[in-house]
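User: Run a structure prediction on this.
Assistant: Running it now.
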Amino acid sequence: MKGDDRNRILLGLGTGVLLASSLRIFVAGAYSSLEKTFFYGMNFPSGLGILLLLLAAFLVGRMSRKAGAALIAAYAIAVLITDATEYTHLVAAFALPVALALVKELDIKYLTMGLVADLSLRVLAVGAEPADFPYTRVILALFLFLGAYALWKEPGTLKKPGFGLYAFAALLELGLIYPNAVMRYSGMAVYYLPQFIGFAFVIALALLLGPYLARKPGMAMVLLIIGSATLFLKPLSLFGLPMALASTIALVESAKGSRGGVIGAFYLFLVATLAIGAYVGRDIGLPFMEDRLEALILAASMIYVLSAYGKKVEVKLPSTREVAGPFAGLALASVIVLALFNAGPTYAEAKKDVLIWTYNVHQGFGPYDGTFNGYELVNLLSEQRPDIWLGQEVVGGMIANAYQDVPLFVSAHLGYAYEYKPAVEGTYGIAVFSHWHMNTVGELNLESVGQVRPAQKVSVDELGLTIVNVHMGLSEEERAMQAEELLKFAEASPVAQIIAGDTNAEPYERAIEILTRDYRDAFPERPPYTFLWERNGVVDKENIDYILLKKDWPARVRDYGCLCDVLVSDHRPVWALIELR
């Protein structure tokens, strides 16, 4: 292999990983920062990252290649030091335009190698964010340092990416390159590690076929629109979205010629904001976007097609080695995780004393600074070993949270079976985890004024137990309305012996009064709080998470408590040890 080819491969690997990672970190950090401003009035960093992105989009064409390399290295160091996205996204705001500047000059075959490398990192992290877990964080940084090294050796300045490349980045950030996002968008609520890995190979194939399709840009444009439109015809999107991804890659060369980089950066921010609005539109002033992610992906595909339309390009096809290498890396990552992690649930015998948790895990974020909490959550669950965990704000592949798949990586690490009830877009909702066979016997979205609020009813076969898991609304009047609906849901056949979850209601509220007509609190004495956010003189302390037992159910509460010192989420794990009779 010639030295120049080796340098291009290193630069391609670094660029692909940098592009995907900086997109995830930037959006997650900006979202976390603005959420803190919205709820608690914290004005830093708030929208600073967005302003820095626009500034970097303006400056990137004036940067030397050594300056670009230094920014990549700075991003790698930031990721190694911390996963606090509220701060690392400020560095990602500069790294992202640098990544797109490199995309502009690299042959697309080298970029696809880097995107498959990032996919391999996602497999190694078993669906978690690679920057969250120490072992994948180091490998992520290594790819970035290699890219920075390759760029540092080259003279000259960076090329300024135009609108078309930011439109390309926006489509990637809408989830097309993440196997779990595509599967959950397509209606797959429950799957385990082998299915995730299998679909990762489908995504890798789509990425690596993109350069071949680039020779027929007209066909690629049509296939991109058709593939995106299959989101309205689930589960056809399991085939359609990989086709759309291959077409997206195919059009990159055509999109390189466009101008308007700063406008493109603003467009990327706008698309990400609208995508978040698909989940929480009523809470952030975008009610028209709620549950409209499919339409957004289709619209973004059309805009990308327009940015690439009418441009003739030459494309260098990858060699057999250049295709086989990324596949081999993904295969190696897959073999490693299948050897080290649980390929599916590990089931246990029925038992008399059952430790039940309810725990809102804050969309995969820790309580402060936008830190990811997957690594801490896995360690906490491994230490405490709840028999049944009812989780709220469980993400399965959401743009605001770096496309983490909490059900998947919890199952892979700890062998839990799970039943997942997405509230919106297949990727955000509630879940029940256990080491027994379970079936969802009912689910609904409660009548809501704000964000959609889900409930699920799950039967645990070996225990003869039926449980309702719930996440209720933010206003007191809304919760009272939801409590009536929830009570009817719980008492419909099969009757739930337990209602548990994040009610957002204090013990004195009307909602709790309604629920305790037929159910009793497992806690004779309430803990001091089950939710606590405390920073810079702002304190939000609430008592809102419950485990409620049917009044005529003969089971006995042997012990109960709250892990109030645990800082994995802004909520605290609430638990009860129940003796079944």
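The chain has a mean pLDDT of 96.
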